[in-house]
């Protein structure tokens, strides 16, 4: 037997490549050359090949049929309850965010005109949230947190321009700033907008928690602002035409998106029940 | 998978969009492979069925986080994490005896019986390997991951993974030889005492 041309340690990675069938012609030649003079490596290669044959043997063993039926039943039931919940969550969550944003706008913007503007903005944001959700779902990437984030971004933009007056007033009372300055508006607006975004990002791994949190945040801020809003509406009952028209258009779109979402859900459910 | 069948990734996207039929197709594609993995690795049919169920339920719960990469590697990584969790839970102690049903592809009945016996012993001696070698054997042979995906899970290079698998299979062969020799000695001494 001729002496091996490489050390066994150096040839071992090449033996692995040969044993697992992905060696190049050059590697094969080097291994052949080494094994011609090394009984240990020849034996190692044979052992691994033999063992690999046993290990890669396919199984005919199958789990009992009840495993499959249990998994499929649970998934079907879960999807059946989760999907309408997502649509409703998209609408309500978006509307809640819009209400928060519009309360801020209503208090400080010269365009503000009370309840109609509030409803109009809520409808638009809910429409955008649901539209984004449906577009993502169409591409197989249904993510309510993404749609929710769009609503939060809207709140951020609004709050940059018009921070919630009660927050500003509280800040003033606490002595954080002496007057209603641009810097104060930006500061409060930033906090108002960034906090829900951070929350949404942190919990975006859980769609249901994201929906509940954003909606709850909107509800809390709405409750805090309602008395002030009511007082403003009583003082300024004039209603301009554009929020009403715009709100009607958004409402129509929202209704269409909702019908589309529910029809898609019903179609998926029918398809899966016939498989 | 026959030509023209939808890719796993397309099925996953359809399922995320709400198509349960796509999920059922994915289940049927991976059921036997993953069950084989759990059965080989744990040697307990009941636990293998339980972990198979949990794997698919984890896929269901994590469907919104699926980012469109290789589905096969993704579901296998979920299965592997459950397998490791199970080993930690039972403190690496083997439980029930492995009942192996070998493939019909084996050439003869005698070969099938031999292979079944050997596969049954494989699980028994798996714990004698070093942790990296055992991990390589489990990932590359039981779970049938390619070396790149297995290396990504184990945190090493594909070359290192290949070498670990080579050494692991070699060590497994030696451990099996020792186990078989020991069994034969025990059998012959029992035969001697009884005769």
Q: How would you sum up this structure, described in words?
A:
The complex is a heterodimer of chains A (275) and B (195). Chain A has 275 residues and is mainly alpha-helical. In chain A, 79% of the residues lie in helices and 0% in strands. In chain A, helix 4 runs antiparallel to helix 5 (115-138) and helix 6 runs antiparallel to helix 8. Chain A is elongated. In chain A, 37% of the residues are buried. Mean pLDDT of chain A is 63; it is low at 109-114, 158-171, 176-182, 201-207 and 236-242. Chain B is mainly α. Chain B is built from eight helices and no strands. Chain B has helices at 8-16, 20-42, 45-61, 71-89, 109-126, 131-142, 147-154, 158-194. The longest helix of chain B is centred in the C-terminal third of the chain and has 37 residues, at 158-194. At the A-B interface, helix 1, helix 3, helix 4 and helix 10 of A face helix 1, helix 2, helix 3, helix 5 and helix 6 of B.
**Which structural class should the secondary elements of chain B be placed in?**
mainly alpha
Average of per-residue pLDDT values of chain A: 63
Q: What is the subunit organization of this protein?
A: heterodimer
Distance linking N and C termini of chain B? 56 Å
Q: What is the radius of gyration of chain A computed over CA atoms, rounded to a whole number of angstroms? A: 32 Å
Let me know the largest β-sheet of chain B. Answer: none
Q: Largest interface, and how many residues on either side?
A: A-B, 53 and 59 residues
Number of strands of chain A: 0
Helix content bin of chain B: over 70%
- Unreliably modeled segments of chain A: 109-114, 158-171, 176-182, 201-207, 236-242
How do the SSEs of chain A run, as a string of H and E? HHHHHHHHHH
Fraction of residues in β-strands of chain B: under 5%
Put simply, the count of helices of chain B is 8
Beta-strand content bin of chain A: under 5%
What is the end-to-end distance of chain A? 65 Å
Q: SS-based structural class of chain A?
A: mainly alpha
């Amino acid at each position: 037997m001729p002496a091996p041309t490489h050390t066994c340690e150096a040839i071992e990675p090449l033996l692995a490549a040969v044993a697992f069938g992905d060696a190049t012609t050059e590697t094969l030649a080097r291994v052949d050359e080494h094994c011609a003079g090394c009984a240990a490596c020849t034996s190692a290669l044979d052992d691994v090949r033999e063992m690999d044959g046993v290990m890669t043997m396919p199984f005919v063993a199958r789990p009992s049929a009840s495993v499959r039926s249990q998994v499929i039943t649970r998934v079907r039931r879960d999807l059946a309850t989760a999907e309408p919940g997502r649509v409703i969550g998209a609408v309500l969550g978006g509307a809640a965010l819009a209400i928060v944003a519009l309360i801020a706008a209503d208090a400080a913007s010269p365009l503000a005109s009370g309840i109609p503007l509030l409803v109009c903005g809520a409808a638009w944001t809910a429409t955008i949230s649901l539209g984004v959700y449906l577009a993502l779902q169409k591409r197989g990437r249904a993510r309510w947190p993404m749609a929710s984030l769009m609503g939060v971004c809207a709140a951020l933009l609004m709050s940059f321009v018009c921070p919630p007056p009660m927050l500003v007033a509280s800040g003033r009372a606490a002595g954080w700033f002496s007057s209603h300055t641009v810097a104060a508006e930006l500061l409060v607006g930033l906090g108002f907008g960034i906090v829900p975004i951070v929350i949404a990002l942190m919990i975006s791994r859980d769609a249901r928690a994201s929906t509940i949190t954003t909606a709850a945040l909107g509800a809390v801020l709405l409750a805090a602002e309602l008395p002030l809003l009511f007082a403003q509406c009583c003082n300024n009952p004039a209603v301009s035409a554009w929020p009403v028209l715009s709100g009607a258009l958004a409402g129509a779109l929202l209704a269409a998106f909702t019908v589309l979402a529910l029809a898609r859900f019903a179609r998926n459910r029918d398809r899966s029940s016939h498989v | 998978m026959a030509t023209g069948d939808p890719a796993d990734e397309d099925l996953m996207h359809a399922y995320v969009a709400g198509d349960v039929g796509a999920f059922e197709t994915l289940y049927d594609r991976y059921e036997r492979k993953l069950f084989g993995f759990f059965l080989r690795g744990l040697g307990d049919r009941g636990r293998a069925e339980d972990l198979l169920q949990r794997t698919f339920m984890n896929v269901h719960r994590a469907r919104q986080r699926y980012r469109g990469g290789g589905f096969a590697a993704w579901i296998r990584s979920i299965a592997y994490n459950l397998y490791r969790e199970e080993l930690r839970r039972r403190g690496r102690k083997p439980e029930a005896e492995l009942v192996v049903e070998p493939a019909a592809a084996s050439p003869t009945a005698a070969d099938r019986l031999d292979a079944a016996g050997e596969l049954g012993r494989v699980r028994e001696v798996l714990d004698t390997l070093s942790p990296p070698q055992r991990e390589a054997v489990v990932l590359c042979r039981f779970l049938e991951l390619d070396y790149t995906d297995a290396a990504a899970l184990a945190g090493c290079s594909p070359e290192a993974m290949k070498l670990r698998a080579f050494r692991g299979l070699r060590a497994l062969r030696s451990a099996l030889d020792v186990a078989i020799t020991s069994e034969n000695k025990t059998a012959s001494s029992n035969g001697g005492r009884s005769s």
